[in-house]
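Hi Prof. W.,

I finally got the ATP-binding cassette domain-containing protein prediction working! I wasn't sure whether to trim anything, so I left the full sequence exactly as given:
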Amino acid sequence: MSPIQPNSGKPPVVSIRNLTKVYGNGFKALKGVDLDIREGEILALLGPNGAGKTTMISIVCGLVNPSGGQVTVGGHDVVRDFRATRSMIGLVPQELTTDQFETVINTVTFSRGLHGKGKNPALIEQILKDLSLWEKRDNMLRELSGGMKRRVLIAKALAHEPRILFLDEPTAGVDVTLRRDMWQVVEKLRATGVTIILTTHYIEEAEEIADRVGVINAGELLLIEDKTTLMKKLGAKQLRLELTHPLEAVPPGLESFDLKLVDDGNALVHDYASDETHGNGQGSRIAALMKALSAADVPIGDISTHQSSLEDIFVKLIGERA
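And this is what came out:
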């Protein structure tokens, strides 16, 4: 079974239990996924192509039928209560599927009407302005760049004021400026209580804006964790000591510190956990190491540290399950 992180207080806005999907050719896209998504959070789903991210999103949005398990949105079953659940969800798909000969404002307004919402020109205007589309409102979609078309997809997903927004690779092919604007919109939405689930290949985005991170590979949810807890739990650090002249071996008396000689003897490295930097009254392990190095007359020229990034953690997890 995949991990579920407990939800404190309110029930989850999306609840996924033992979700499976097997396609006609026998391919198992999802293998018993369990996941609770909290109201108002930003959850980032990371995984390589074919991991099952898009399949899971498609099932929650009612676009694909599950082979087994159950998904509820706002307490409603996504299969039995499709209309109720779909009205609460906004979806920004990977594909740039738009009517090339329609204007920006018309296609966004039409999307609102598709969900049974009455006209609200002021809201549509605000959405287009937030996404820097207002000046392009009368342009046909075929006249827009790929990045601007992706903004239109986001505008369409927001037009019916969803409680939950799925962003499936929303910044693929988008330049840095447009990407930054999009994340400002995401933050505004979160401030109004909208729950946001995004899949991304840009791990730095997940590291910057997500509250929790899930890692999916081969149809299994390998991990779901608060980002800060994840970084603390799995984010190893490395102390690197550049030497003024090379050594042939680690000096005697330093064996207990698990030092490794690298770069043809020109540097020593020590891997350690974050909590080793905190003293315990008798000095931390790092302080003890530095004292031992000094006593051994190790010729240190420079010292640097490296903190594992979310990308390092992701690559490690995927590699362990390969």
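The longest strand covers residues 28-37. Does that look reasonable to you?

Thanks,
D.
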